[in-house]
Amino acid sequence: VQLQASGGGLVQAGGSLRLSCTASGFSLATYNIGWFRQAPGSEREGVSCISANGGSTYYADSVKGRFTISRDNYRSTVYLQMNSLKPEDTADYYCAATKLSPSGSWGQLLSIPRYEYDFWGQGTLVTVSS
After folding, report:
1. pLDDT digit string (tens) for 60-96?
2. Helix, strand, coil tally for the chain in percent (to 5)
């Protein structure tokens, strides 16, 4: 039973990458998913999240208009399409799954304690060169 993030790599500024978060051993269909990133020497930052049915999404201001989160519950996979990448997007990107739902804005999901997420994937490194 695990969550796996993949799709990272080296890309030039202005380029695109698509990250995938895939569950094995369980179905993601009933989980809300968050994407996080952490650059060296920096705290973890919530990037985006999506509800279990895909009907609600949220983006941090730093990625709004450039990143798109989506999911394919049949394939038990959540995607993070990243366009117009900037050097400041360089970080390890992580996905996490929780059955908790926010009482207000879906952005709250990115602020809950780490232990409130049931599963965490390992990081996938995104490096954006200038």
Report:
1. 999 999 999 999 999 999 999 999 999 999 999 999 9
2. 10, 50, 40
